[in-house]
From TrEMBL:
Keyword Nucleotide-binding tagged: yes
Record keywords, A-Z: ATP-binding, Nucleotide-binding, Transport
MF terms in GO: ATP binding
Keyword Iron-sulfur: no
Entry-linked InterPro entries: AAA+_ATPase, ABC_transporter-like_ATP-bd, ABC_transporter-like_CS, ABC_transpr_LolD-like, MacB-like_ATP-bd, P-loop_NTPase
Residue span of region Disordered: 303-324
Domain of life: Bacteria
Name assigned to this protein: ABC transporter ATP-binding protein
Positions of the ABC transporter domain: 24-265
Regions annotated as coiled coil: none
Length: 324
């Protein structure tokens, strides 16, 4: 039993903060839309951590909640409940002036439609210099940084061209330079290659990787395209408003990706639907702890009887084999 002194000490000890020093922390994020009295839970307790310097893809089918998440992380929408923090900004409590500074200096954006990224009547150099002007940077500095960024992303030749005089891939690479102009901590890219062919998409991803590697900026790419997995080290899948599985690519470019399930703070794991369907797992599964893994088996008795909820049935199934 704890002494009073021990309890007092525990109470004064700083609590461990979820996510620690992660650049993006989403903890049990909920967004409910209400239209005509009908509620839609677009995000249903989403957890996500993105560390400094990571290049992460967030994928999900249409309606899974990607745009909702992106709108919250970009400061355009406010979540209903939960925690959402980016670069130290609390997105639930952030107000007017902070919101402006956050959107101008802490994060950068690349949208699918070029028209949202670049002004058609400015050349590439001026497009990149523009956000620096808004942030109060000197013209000379803006010029120099604009040249450096266009050079880094392989589009120095476009400096004097307007968007209409560039290819789609060049426009997106200039858009990356615009997003990086104010040296943000995180860049969000919404379907950045959605309108491009695969060779051009490759160039855009090469540019994103260069920005990530050379400048150390965290980059989050949101897309419905699962092929993106080949381009990044970590892919997080959203399903039904929650992060479900992660694919991690450890090692070099040619390494194969390993699939992981997300384990939340309450110990919940969402198993991939195809695994559940293949083994006809429903309502309840048997679990057993082994020295180095936890096994999960279908409840065979329940499956055979077609019944759900009969107490004790899990205990009466045959013992799982160690091969699983
Ligand atoms: N403004 C809104 N009002 C009501 N429901 C909404 C609103 N925006 C999104 N939803 C609903 O929330 C859920 C998640 O939508 P969201 O747009 O975030 O998904 P998504 O993964 O971005 O889909 P897509 O790839 O098609 O853009 C969907 O069921 C959608 O119908």
């Amino acid at each position: 039993m704890s002494t009073l002194q021990e309890l007092e000490l525990a109470a004064t000890r700083p609590k461990e903060v979820y996510g620690g020093d992660a650049k993006i922390v989403c903890d049990n994020l909920v967004r409910i839309y209400k239209t005509d009295g009908i509620e839609v839970q677009a995000l249903q307790g989403l957890d996500l951590l993105v560390r400094a310097g990571e290049l992460v893809a967030i994928v999900g089918a249409s309606g899974s909640g990607k745009s909702t998440l992106l709108n919250i992380l970009s400061g355009l929408d406010t979540p209903t409940a939960g925690v959402a923090k980016v670069g130290g900004y609390d997105l639930l409590t952030m107000k007017g002036r902070d919101r402006l500074r956050y959107r101008r200096e802490t994060v950068g954006f690349i949208w699918q439609q070029t028209a949202r990224n670049l002004l058609p009547y400015l050349n590439a150099a001026d497009n990149v210099a523009l956000p620096m002007g808004f942030a109060g940077k000197k013209r000379k500095y803006a010029r120099r940084r604009s040249t450096e960024l266009l050079d880094l992303l392989g589009v120095a030749r476009c400096a004097d061209r307007r968007p209409g005089q560039m290819s789609g891939g060049e426009q997106q690479r200039v858009s990356i330079a615009v997003a990086l102009a104010n040296d943000p901590e995180v860049v969000f890219a919404d379907e950045p290659t959605g309108e491009l062919d695969s060779a051009t998409s490759q160039q855009v991803f090469d540019a994103l990787r260069t920005a990530n590697g050379e400048l150390g900026v965290s980059i989050v790419v949101v897309t419905h395209d699962h092929e993106v997995t080949d381009q990044v080290q970590r892919t997080v899948e959203i399903r039904d408003g929650r992060t479900s599985t992660e694919l991690l690519r450890r090692g070099g470019e040619d390494s194969t990706a390993e699939q992981f399930a997300v384990l939340d703070r309450a110990g919940r794991v969402q198993l991939p639907k195809e695994y559940l369907d293949a083994l006809r797992m429903k309502d309840r599964v048997r679990v057993a702890k082994n020295s180095d893994h936890i096994g999960v088996w279908p409840d065979l008795v329940q499956g055979a009887a077609g019944s759900a909820g009969s107490a004790g049935s899990a205990g009466s199934t045959s013992a799982p084999s160690e091969e699983d």
